[in-house]
Amino acid sequence: MPKNYIYDIDYDEVTRLREEEELTWPVIGERIGAPHKILNIGYHRRKKPGFVPRNLPIVLTNMDAAYIAGLIDGEGSITIAESGQDFRLSLTITNTYRPVLEWVQERTGGSLASRRNDKNRRPIHVLSINNKRVTQILRKIAPYMIIKRQQAQIALDFQLTKGWQERTDEILEKRAGYKERISQAKQYYFPVQPRVTKPPR
After folding, report:
1. Is residue 53 in some structural domain?
2. Among 53, 129, 144, 200, who pairs with 110 as Cys (CB 3.0-4.6 Å)?
3. Could you tell me if 36 and 78 lie in one domain?
4. Residue 41 resides in a domain
5. Rounded CA gap, 109 and 129, in Å?
6. Are 60 and 71 in contact (CB under 8 A)?
7. Are strands 124-130 and 86-95 parallel, antiparallel or unpaired?
8. Overall domain count for the chain
């Protein structure tokens, strides 16, 4: 049976075929019995953890997708923001335990940064993913999401207006509408509390 999952493959043999015999990816795919795009992803991940070529698909098991969905439900943010004269989609996950985000990054790509807000507190780590890769991720994890499933669906609908469509005033107005909808969806779970003022003495 052909191998389709990235972690079920002997990458020592893949590396040997690529570096010693200098074979092309399609030929290596025939030798190994696996899709050559999957081999390309795994090869580069071993060379550089977190590397995912932009033009290659994101490969997640059901367990991977469910775990990442839980992280995003609890500590993630799906955002549609203005970018120049247009709008862009982004996904961020924040955590104080960096290995968790490194694990996600190995499967999804993105950029991982750290910052320290207070000398007495642990640093905060943020994984950021933008545009098309966000769409790929949300399509795979949305069925497992609970708290932010509505936001994920709005983001996917928003992304349908991107890419091939001409950037007309009508399209920009539609994208702005999705930005407003996702903001409202966030307030559904995290309503803005009115400021309580103390009565004068």
Report:
1. no
2. 129
3. no
4. yes
5. 7
6. no
7. antiparallel
8. 2
- Do 41 and 87 fall within a single domain? no
What tens digit of pLDDT does each residue of 59-72 get?
788 999 999 999 99
Are residues 76 and 124 both part of a single domain? Answer: yes
| Chain segment 123-135, per-residue pLDDT in tens | 899 999 987 889 9
Give the structural domain span for 19.
6-47
DSSP β-bridge partners for residue 128: 92, 111
199 domain-assigned: no
Question: Do 17 and 75 fall into the same domain?
Answer: no
CA distances from 67 to 63, 77, 108 (A): 6, 15, 13
Predicted TM-score of the model (pTM): 0.68
What count of other Cβ atoms lies within 10 Å of the Cβ of residue 95?
17
Residue among 140, 142, 137 nearest 89 (CA): 137
- Size of the chain, expressed as the number of residues it contains: 201
Residue 91 pairs in a beta bridge with 78, 129
